Amino acid sequence: MAEEKQYSRGGKEPPADKESRADADKDPRAKLAARVAKNFAGSLKAKAALEAALEITEVQPGINADWEIFAFGPWQTPDALMPGRIIRKNQKAYLAIVVWMNPEMCRNITQHGDKIELNIFTSDMQRMQPVQALDHYCCIQTKLDHCWYVYVWEFTPTVDACLYETNICARICTCGNFPLQDYAGFVRHVFDFDPEALWPPIPPTVLPPDFPQTDWPQGPTAPPSWGFDRPVRYMVYDPDVVCECGNPNDPVNNFCKGVLSEKG
Length: 264
Known about the structure:
By secondary structure, the chain is of the alpha+beta class.
């Protein structure tokens, strides 16, 4: 596994210094993080609407503290075959996680040097079993007045399965490694980089009305492909496994019965 990287943002726009651009050119994770950071920064223009839609993280009652965890992906390098959610066995893929805090929570958390704990759990839904090799744990060290952070996880599935499911949970921990009471949440907003070409897009019920459309991957219509209230799902296939269809003329075969097909 390559070296982990995390990215923090305290202002409205991500930095565009030479070092950041050089990192993005060398490391696919840095390139994905820069892309996610750029677009997430634009979404903060709809800050009021975004805060009004928050509902999936818990905070102590009586304080104006809101936060949210988003996921983007899976994503493969630009030279890989698309779509991103169909991954070849032993192929690297990436998942970006954004943790956002509103200004009041940002002040409370970052001035004490608290940490954001991320737990990534993956299940093989074909075999209905956990996949420890695709679990991941890490912590983000907050920085004073940096109110949102981008972390890109690199993973390599080694077993094919019709469907994998990844869930991401988060907690806030003190500098002494004690969890802050009532600060916990999990990802329910997932951005899918694969545009839909046939079916209608996902209804924009969870997006702020002024959510920026510029530079996001576009399906047939706006808004981009946000999924709500679901985990990250993807397929891993093995191109070396022989198909077991057999011969359709054999008395016993594996072909579907009653298929309707039309020309054109």
